[in-house]
Amino acid sequence: MDKINVFICYGGKWTQDNEYTSDKMTGIVVPMDCTYNHLECMICSVMKVSASTQRVKIQYRVKKNMPLMEISDDISLTFYLELKRKDKDLASFPLCINVTTFCEAVTDNSVTSAQKLPSMEEIAIDVYNNMSEVGETTDEGGSDIISMVTMDGISKDKVFKNKTMVKRSISIYAIHNNFQFKVSKSNKKEYVLKCIDDKCKWTFRASRLGGTDMFKVRYRKNVHICSNNIILGDHPQATSSIVGEFIMYKYISTKTTYTPADIISDMMNTYGVSMSYEKAWRSKEKALELVRGDPTESYEKLLEYLYMIEQTNPGSFTKIETYQDNKFKYLFMALGAFIQGWKYCRPVIVIDATFLKGNYGRTLFTACTQDANKSIFILAFGVGDLETNDSWEWFLSMLKEAYGEREGLCIISDGHASIKNAIHKVYENAMHGLYSYHLLKNLKSSFGGKKRGRRK
Ligand SMILES: [Zn+2]
Question: Does the domain formed by 305-442 have CATH 3.30.420?
Answer without folding.
Answer: yes
